[in-house]
Design a protein that fits this description.
By secondary structure, the protein is an alpha+beta fold. It has five domains: 68 residues, DNA Methylphosphotriester Repair Domain, CATH 3.40.10.10; 106 residues, Homeodomain-like (Arc Repressor Mutant, subunit A, Orthogonal Bundle), CATH 1.10.10; 81 residues, DNA-3-methyladenine glycosylase AlkA, N-terminal domain (TATA-Binding Protein); 109 residues, Endonuclease III, domain 1, CATH 1.10.340; 63 residues, no CATH class. Helix content is 44%, strand content 11%. The chain has 21 helices and eleven strands. The strands form three sheets. The protein has a five-stranded antiparallel sheet. It has a four-stranded mixed sheet with strand order 3-1-2-4. Helix 13 runs antiparallel to helix 16 and helix 13 packs across helix 17. The longest helix is centred in the first third of the chain and has 19 residues.
């Protein structure tokens, strides 16, 4: 077996695997020399002897060492960790794009196009993958396709042909060849191995509907803790009728549109499994080409890949805020940066309740109504719809209406522009851009210092600490600016999580 030094210490890995600690799920993988299988730290199988195991940072490193994924704990279902390491930014961006299907499918890019998108040379990108992951860009992309296909074979009733298409393979023959070569069994053999119709997991599987509609369920894992009740309340206060819905079972659902594909999902907490059971409904069979990107965005919106133990540990060091921090509070996103920008514009200088009313009016008036399956939903308005909107229904200043339509026009004309370019739009300031980055792109280090609620709660907690400070100077913002500069340095790279913690305070 190829030796590999895991970034997490060997002793920490040993303790985590013996305890089956779910906080480390997806942060490392366990290779078993005797069985040639690799597992997650939470694998229910009998723990192997320490002298028979090796530890790997990623599943692809374990696969490169000649190991195959365990059929019991299914490494393909582990939470991911790359998006929250805070280092190796270019490599992590490349992996995120590949995981979303940038190199797969009929419209997949080549390595050169991906490199250009990242602003680096293809030679440098290949060097990064070779040095950091021990594999090539194409091999990594192919492995991610296989892991996604494996997840669908385990968890859905999609046909093998549909699974191959959803995973980005253009040929069922090629899919079968690669699958067998990499995983030492065929897709049909794996499908048969998942259990009999009566077992608990299989009973959750949803059948395909008629008329081309596709309905499937996947289980998306996370690392505990997860403060879902508080986050359910957060969503409920801001929910948009017909676009979002919540029920008494603490589930959250919404409609979506991504790369020309529309549908909706329902996510219900499965606390016993540290996961969400997510039902996804797509309009037609051909929409499966975007399924990987859709699932990745659901993971981002619910913040399922956060290394929350590390984040909570960092927040616990910030005095005097530490005692007020709620363990497991996530960075809840919205479906797109454009939607987040619209929410930010509507929420300027008004209460959350008033902002929610304006948002509901905007979506119900300008969003497209669709019948998807048997459910009537409304999609968030497109940039084109907002650009053309008169907005007479919205009771807010004309300047903000103009800023909203200008934002729609800009994103319509420049769909892939960096959000910093939004600052060229009259009425769009740093707070709006920062909010869109935090909730629309899920950037982890956005401390919204300009937010009035954040300012009020930071000052309230630090006032006692700053005994003798002139309160009038603090209220004018001079001391607050210095305070938040220091606070942002202390909390980095988790400023967005502190923002949500401050919002959560009563």
């Amino acid at each position: 077996m190829v030796e590999h030094e895991c970034q997490i210490s060997k002793e920490a890995c040993r303790k985590a695997r013996l305890a089956r600690d779910p906080r480390f799920d997806g942060q490392f993988f366990i290779g078993v020399c005797t069985t040639k299988i690799f597992c997650r730290p939470v694998c229910p199988a009998v723990s192997p002897k320490e002298e028979n195991v090796r530890y790997f940072d990623t599943a692809v490193q374990a696969a490169n060492a000649g190991l195959r994924p365990c059929l019991r704990c299914r490494p393909d279902s582990a939470p991911r960790s790359y998006a929250w390491k805070g280092t190796q930014t270019t490599l992590e961006r490349a992996k995120a794009l590949i995981d979303a299907g940038a190199l797969s499918g009929i419209d997949g890019q080549n390595v050169e196009a991906l490199s250009e998108r990242l602003g680096i040379s293809s030679r440098y990108l290949r060097k990064l993958f070779a040095q950091k992951l021990g594999t090539s860009v194409k091999h990594y992309a192919q492995y991610r396709q296989l892991m996604f296909a494996k997840q669908l074979l385990h968890q859905s009733n999609l046909s093998i042909t549909q699974v191959a298409f959803a995973a980005g393979f253009n040929s069922i023959r090629r899919f079968n060849e690669v699958f067998k070569a990499q995983l030492q069994l065929t897709p049909s053999a794996l499908r048969k191995s998942r259990g009999q119709p009566g077992d608990s997991e299989r009973s959750q599987l949803q059948p395909l509907a008629e008329c081309g509609q596709v309905t499937l369920r996947v289980q998306l894992s996370f690392r505990p803790p997860f403060a879902w009740q508080q986050q359910y309340d957060f969503y409920q206060l801001r929910a948009v009728k017909e676009m979002e819905w919540l029920d008494n079972n603490l589930s959250y659902g919404r409609s979506f549109s991504l790369n020309g594909v529309s549908g909706y999902f329902d996510a219900k907490l499965n606390e016993a499994r540290n996961a969400f059971d997510v039902d996804i409904v797509l309009e037609k069979d051909s929409d499966l080409c975007q399924l990987n990107a859709i699932i990745n965005n659901i993971r981002r919106v619910l913040d399922l890949d956060a290394n929350i133990y590390q984040i909570d540990s960092a927040l616990s060091l910030i005095e005097p805020l530490a005692p007020l921090m709620l363990p497991g509070l996530r960075l809840l996103g919205v479906w797109s940066a454009f939607e987040a920008g619209c929410r930010a514009v509507l929420g300027q200088q008004v209460s959350i309740v008033q902002a929610s009313k304006l948002l509901n009016q905007l979506v119900l008036t300008y969003g497209e109504k669709r019948l998807i399956g048997e459910k009537q939903v409304t999609l968030f308005p497109t940039p084109a719809a907002i650009a053309k909107a008169e907005l007479t229904e919205l009771k807010m200043p004309g300047a903000r209406k103009r800023a909203l339509t200008a934002l729609g026009q800009f994103v319509w004309d420049n769909p892939n522009a960096d959000l910093e370019r939004w600052l060229s739009i009259k009425g769009i300031g740093p707070w709006t851009v920062a909010y869109a980055r935090m909730r629309g792109l899920s950037e982890p280090d956005i401390l919204l210092c300009g937010d009035l609620v954040v300012k009020k709660r930071v000052l309230a907690q630090y006032q006692t600490e700053q005994a003798g400070t002139d309160k009038s100077a603090t209220d004018k913002g001079l001391d607050y600016e210095l305070l938040t500069q220091s606070l942002a340095k202390q909390v980095a790279p988790w400023g967005s999580y502190l923002t949500f913690q401050l919002w959560n305070l009563s």
